[in-house]
Amino acid sequence: MDKLTSMKVFAYVVEHGSFRNAAHHFDISPTMVGKHMSFLEQSLGTQLIHRTTRKQSLTEAGRLYYQECHRIIEDITNAENLIQTLINRPTGTVKVNCPVTYGKKVIAPIVADFLAEFPELNVELMLDNSLIDPYRSEADVIIRIGELVDSSLVARKLGEYDMTYCASPSYLKLHAPIQSLDDLEHHHCLGFQYHQGESQQVVNMPSNTFGNSNTRLTSNNGDVLKFAALKGSGVLLQPKILVEQEIQSGALVEILHSHIPKPKPIHLLYRSKQLSLKNRTFVDFVLSHVSQ
């Protein structure tokens, strides 16, 4: 059995929490993952992982061995990256995780241009509004909207995310004027449902705004809410990039101009300053093509 492969399998088990995840990643059976673990433990003469039917945890030897495995694997990756840079031919798949609306409106067109320019590279673009763990995710590049809380990640700013309130002309004609956020308490609102179960759009807004008492429709998809707004169902607060065409055509009308939430920063994130050539190529391409 190849020791380097076993080390990679062991490191993946530690980082992703289960034999099943490692089996899926390496396209082997969970039984084979167990054989890799047994091979390492036998060759080292000590147990690396405590395993029960419900959970697993590292022994002290396992913790130390993982640190060295991680360093060795990273060194090998860096060496391979140097050779790739030397021959200047990026290959492989770049895995990207991005919020849904920004991904559809901004990143997807950039990815299409990227694929045309780099025929030997592939992109796996996953659109997801959940806050994934960057250290357990398989994503090479993560795009996030909002203030960052993890300073250990490398962050490159892509721009600002502007939000806007709007409603259809028919809705505004049939209902009372909206001049302040407090007025929304007496209107039909279309609330975005975040992964944490909150329908409020912005944490510093009044508690009654887009709350359960006046929300006619709640969805975790902005297009669903926009469709309802176009049909006159209520007031919408969504990213400007999602509704700008409808605003320009007059199908939706911006309101509450003096109460628009502060724009949120957009960042491109990755774990290590030592990017592989494929990831560096993608990051540089996005940075050069996104409009700040």
Automatic annotation (TrEMBL):
Residue span(s) of domain HTH lysR-type: 1-59
UniProt keyword terms in alphabetical order: DNA-binding, Transcription, Transcription regulation
InterPro entries assigned to the protein according to its UniProt record, in alphabetical order: LysR-type_TF_proteobact-type, LysR_HTH_N, LysR_subst-bd, WH-like_DNA-bd_sf, WH_DNA-bd_sf
Family under the similarity heading: Belongs to the LysR transcriptional regulatory family.
Protein's recorded name: LysR family transcriptional regulator
Species name: Vibrio harveyi
